Amino acid sequence: MSTESLVSRARAICEQNGARFTSIREKVFRLMAENHGGQGAYELLEQLKQTEPAAKPATIYRALEFLTEQGFIHKIESSNAFMLCQHFDKHHPAQLLICEKCGNVTELHSATLHTEFSKQAAALGFHIHHQTIEARGSCRQCRGN
């Protein structure tokens, strides 16, 4: 999906939710949409400074918090990075395949895995508020297959 169509979808969702898709938030969203791997906050900040020289760490963190709350991005906990979610469903469970060689991140949505994980958690009296499962390895391209 093109960056423009993703931005249009995000803008429409923000309007539906009564949320403001400010120019800074949109610029950070665009930076995320143009990269297929995870990006750290300071990496995004350096890119943002090309068009917003006065941007500070708080600027990027506020934008990332907003984009996460709207369901537009996922946080990759193991590397403290962020990636665009093309599904835009708020707080849906995700499984991330992270290539340790090239940094590419693929998002999966296995209902079976989510259901089994949730059932086992519930059996222990645990209520899951947010679920992201991360698996690290090497992608097909990096393995040469």
From TrEMBL:
InterPro entries: FUR (IPR002481), Fur_C (IPR043135), WH-like_DNA-bd_sf (IPR036388), WH_DNA-bd_sf (IPR036390). Its cofactor is Mn(2+); Fe(2+); Zn(2+). Keywords: Cytoplasm, DNA-binding, Iron, Metal-binding, Repressor, Transcription, Transcription regulation, Zinc. Belongs to the Fur family. PANTHER family: ZINC UPTAKE REGULATION PROTEIN. Homodimer. This is Ferric uptake regulation protein. It comes from Alishewanella agri BL06.
